[in-house]
Amino acid sequence: MRAATANRLFAEQANGEARVALSRTDFAVLIHDHAPALYRIAYRLVGDAHDAEDVVQETLRSAWKSRENFECGRGQRAWLAAILRRRVIDRWRSSGHRMVLVGDGPLEVPVAAVDPTTNDFTDEMQHALSQLPCELRESLLLVVVGELTHQETADTLGVPLGTVLSRVSRARQRLRKHLLALSHV
After folding, report:
1. Do strands 10-14 and 17-21 pair parallel, antiparallel, or not at all (unpaired)?
2. Strands (E), the chain
3. What's the rounded Cα separation, in Å, for the pair 115 and 162?
Protein backbone atom coordinates (compact mmCIF):
# COMPACT_ATOMS: atom_id res chain seq x y z
CA MET A 1 0.00 0.00 0.00
CA ARG A 2 1.32 3.44 -0.91
CA ALA A 3 2.18 5.84 1.90
CA ALA A 4 -0.43 8.44 0.80
CA THR A 5 -3.15 5.82 0.81
CA ALA A 6 -1.96 4.48 4.14
CA ASN A 7 -2.18 7.98 5.62
CA ARG A 8 -5.69 8.54 4.24
CA LEU A 9 -7.22 5.25 5.24
CA PHE A 10 -6.58 2.64 7.86
CA ALA A 11 -8.01 -0.83 7.72
CA GLU A 12 -8.49 -3.49 10.32
CA GLN A 13 -9.91 -6.97 10.17
CA ALA A 14 -13.12 -7.42 12.13
CA ASN A 15 -14.95 -10.71 11.80
CA GLY A 16 -13.28 -11.36 8.46
CA GLU A 17 -14.54 -8.09 6.92
CA ALA A 18 -12.27 -5.19 6.09
CA ARG A 19 -13.30 -2.06 7.95
CA VAL A 20 -12.04 1.30 6.74
CA ALA A 21 -12.12 4.69 8.40
CA LEU A 22 -12.96 7.32 5.81
CA SER A 23 -10.81 10.44 5.67
CA ARG A 24 -12.33 13.93 5.42
CA THR A 25 -11.61 13.96 1.70
CA ASP A 26 -13.19 10.54 1.15
CA PHE A 27 -16.20 11.57 3.22
CA ALA A 28 -16.62 14.80 1.21
CA VAL A 29 -16.62 12.76 -2.00
CA LEU A 30 -19.14 10.38 -0.44
CA ILE A 31 -21.45 13.30 0.38
CA HIS A 32 -21.07 14.78 -3.09
CA ASP A 33 -21.87 11.45 -4.75
CA HIS A 34 -24.78 10.31 -2.59
CA ALA A 35 -26.47 13.24 -0.79
CA PRO A 36 -28.98 13.93 -3.60
CA ALA A 37 -30.15 10.29 -3.59
CA LEU A 38 -30.35 10.31 0.21
CA TYR A 39 -32.49 13.43 0.05
CA ARG A 40 -34.85 11.81 -2.48
CA ILE A 41 -35.24 8.74 -0.27
CA ALA A 42 -35.76 10.84 2.86
CA TYR A 43 -38.27 13.09 1.14
CA ARG A 44 -40.34 10.13 0.01
CA LEU A 45 -40.19 8.53 3.45
CA VAL A 46 -41.04 11.60 5.55
CA GLY A 47 -42.98 13.64 2.99
CA ASP A 48 -41.61 17.06 3.95
CA ALA A 49 -38.67 18.92 2.41
CA HIS A 50 -37.40 20.41 5.68
CA ASP A 51 -37.73 17.14 7.59
CA ALA A 52 -35.98 15.35 4.73
CA GLU A 53 -33.08 17.81 4.93
CA ASP A 54 -32.90 17.27 8.70
CA VAL A 55 -32.90 13.48 8.29
CA VAL A 56 -30.14 13.67 5.69
CA GLN A 57 -28.08 15.89 8.02
CA GLU A 58 -28.60 13.43 10.87
CA THR A 59 -27.63 10.60 8.53
CA LEU A 60 -24.42 12.29 7.45
CA ARG A 61 -23.54 13.17 11.05
CA SER A 62 -24.09 9.53 12.06
CA ALA A 63 -22.05 8.33 9.09
CA TRP A 64 -19.17 10.63 10.05
CA LYS A 65 -19.25 9.44 13.65
CA SER A 66 -19.30 5.79 12.59
CA ARG A 67 -16.93 6.08 9.62
CA GLU A 68 -14.57 3.53 11.20
CA ASN A 69 -17.34 0.93 10.72
CA PHE A 70 -17.46 1.42 6.95
CA GLU A 71 -17.11 -1.99 5.30
CA CYS A 72 -15.04 -2.38 2.17
CA GLY A 73 -16.97 -4.23 -0.48
CA ARG A 74 -20.36 -2.92 0.67
CA GLY A 75 -21.78 -0.18 -1.48
CA GLN A 76 -21.40 3.32 -0.12
CA ARG A 77 -24.98 4.23 -0.94
CA ALA A 78 -26.25 1.05 0.73
CA TRP A 79 -24.28 1.92 3.89
CA LEU A 80 -25.69 5.45 3.89
CA ALA A 81 -29.22 4.24 3.10
CA ALA A 82 -29.09 1.87 6.07
CA ILE A 83 -28.13 4.77 8.33
CA LEU A 84 -30.83 6.97 6.77
CA ARG A 85 -33.42 4.28 7.36
CA ARG A 86 -32.50 4.10 11.05
CA ARG A 87 -32.69 7.90 11.37
CA VAL A 88 -36.16 7.95 9.77
CA ILE A 89 -37.35 5.18 12.08
CA ASP A 90 -35.93 7.09 15.07
CA ARG A 91 -37.82 10.19 13.92
CA TRP A 92 -41.08 8.25 13.52
CA ARG A 93 -40.70 6.73 16.96
CA SER A 94 -39.92 10.03 18.65
CA SER A 95 -42.86 11.81 17.03
CA GLY A 96 -45.30 9.00 17.73
CA HIS A 97 -46.62 9.03 14.18
CA ARG A 98 -45.43 8.85 10.60
CA MET A 99 -45.08 12.06 8.69
CA VAL A 100 -46.40 11.56 5.16
CA LEU A 101 -47.92 14.16 2.89
CA VAL A 102 -51.46 13.32 1.91
CA GLY A 103 -53.64 16.08 0.67
CA ASP A 104 -55.66 17.45 -2.18
CA GLY A 105 -53.75 20.70 -2.63
CA PRO A 106 -50.69 21.13 -4.82
CA LEU A 107 -47.26 20.54 -3.38
CA GLU A 108 -45.61 23.93 -3.07
CA VAL A 109 -42.23 23.36 -1.51
CA PRO A 110 -39.24 25.38 -2.71
CA VAL A 111 -36.23 23.12 -3.01
CA ALA A 112 -32.84 24.52 -3.87
CA ALA A 113 -30.93 21.39 -4.84
CA VAL A 114 -32.90 18.48 -6.29
CA ASP A 115 -36.60 19.09 -6.82
CA PRO A 116 -38.49 16.00 -5.64
CA THR A 117 -41.38 16.78 -8.00
CA THR A 118 -39.27 16.22 -11.10
CA ASN A 119 -39.62 12.90 -12.89
CA ASP A 120 -43.38 12.94 -12.29
CA PHE A 121 -43.15 12.60 -8.50
CA THR A 122 -46.47 14.35 -7.89
CA ASP A 123 -48.87 14.71 -5.00
CA GLU A 124 -50.78 11.79 -6.47
CA MET A 125 -47.61 9.69 -6.36
CA GLN A 126 -46.89 10.75 -2.77
CA HIS A 127 -50.46 9.85 -1.81
CA ALA A 128 -50.19 6.50 -3.60
CA LEU A 129 -46.91 5.80 -1.83
CA SER A 130 -48.49 6.63 1.51
CA GLN A 131 -51.14 3.97 0.85
CA LEU A 132 -48.52 1.21 0.59
CA PRO A 133 -47.59 -0.86 3.63
CA CYS A 134 -44.32 0.37 5.14
CA GLU A 135 -42.24 -2.65 4.08
CA LEU A 136 -43.39 -2.38 0.45
CA ARG A 137 -42.84 1.40 0.30
CA GLU A 138 -39.42 1.17 1.92
CA SER A 139 -38.20 -1.57 -0.44
CA LEU A 140 -39.52 0.25 -3.50
CA LEU A 141 -37.99 3.59 -2.49
CA LEU A 142 -34.57 2.10 -1.79
CA VAL A 143 -34.53 0.44 -5.22
CA VAL A 144 -36.18 3.12 -7.35
CA VAL A 145 -35.38 6.41 -5.64
CA GLY A 146 -32.26 5.36 -3.75
CA GLU A 147 -30.90 3.51 -6.78
CA LEU A 148 -29.72 0.58 -4.67
CA THR A 149 -29.52 -2.85 -6.24
CA HIS A 150 -32.02 -5.40 -5.03
CA GLN A 151 -29.21 -7.19 -3.19
CA GLU A 152 -28.04 -3.97 -1.49
CA THR A 153 -31.64 -3.31 -0.47
CA ALA A 154 -31.94 -6.83 0.94
CA ASP A 155 -28.71 -6.35 2.90
CA THR A 156 -29.85 -2.94 4.16
CA LEU A 157 -33.22 -4.25 5.32
CA GLY A 158 -31.82 -7.55 6.61
CA VAL A 159 -34.19 -9.67 4.52
CA PRO A 160 -33.62 -12.28 1.79
CA LEU A 161 -33.24 -11.12 -1.81
CA GLY A 162 -36.45 -12.89 -2.84
CA THR A 163 -38.38 -10.91 -0.25
CA VAL A 164 -37.13 -7.63 -1.71
CA LEU A 165 -37.95 -8.75 -5.25
CA SER A 166 -41.46 -9.71 -4.15
CA ARG A 167 -42.00 -6.48 -2.19
CA VAL A 168 -40.85 -4.28 -5.06
CA SER A 169 -43.06 -6.15 -7.51
CA ARG A 170 -46.13 -5.95 -5.25
CA ALA A 171 -45.46 -2.25 -4.55
CA ARG A 172 -45.27 -1.47 -8.27
CA GLN A 173 -48.48 -3.39 -8.92
CA ARG A 174 -50.33 -1.53 -6.16
CA LEU A 175 -49.01 1.85 -7.30
CA ARG A 176 -50.00 1.12 -10.89
CA LYS A 177 -53.51 0.07 -9.78
CA HIS A 178 -53.92 3.16 -7.59
CA LEU A 179 -52.66 5.60 -10.22
CA LEU A 180 -54.74 4.00 -12.98
CA ALA A 181 -57.83 4.33 -10.79
CA LEU A 182 -57.04 8.04 -10.39
CA SER A 183 -56.66 8.54 -14.13
CA HIS A 184 -60.15 7.14 -14.78
CA VAL A 185 -61.83 9.54 -12.36
Report:
1. antiparallel
2. 10-14, 17-21, 70-71
3. 32
C-alpha gyration radius of the chain: 18
* Per-residue CA distances from 30 to 53, 67, 77, 88, 180 (Å): 17, 11, 8, 20, 38
Question: Cα-Cα-Cα-Cα dihedral of 7, 13, 16, 22, to 10°?
Answer: -40
Q: How many residues are there in the chain? A: 185
In this structure, are residues 77 and 146 in contact, taking their beta carbons and an 8 Å threshold? yes
DSSP letter, residue 101: -
Q: Give Cα separations from 157 to 39, 57, 153 (angstroms).
A: 18, 21, 6
Query: Among 1-5, 43-47, 74-78, 117-121, where is mean pLDDT lowest?
Result: 1-5
Q: What is the pTM of this model?
A: 0.54
What does the buried/exposed string (b/e) look like for 8-20 if buried means 16 or more CB atoms within 10 Å of the residue's CB? eeeeeeeeeeebb
Q: How far is CA 87 from CA 23, 37, 175, 178, in A?
A: 23, 15, 26, 29
Taking Cα atoms as reference points, which of 170, 171, 39 lies closest to residue 109?
Answer: 39
Decide if 146 contacts 35 (C-beta within 8 A).
no
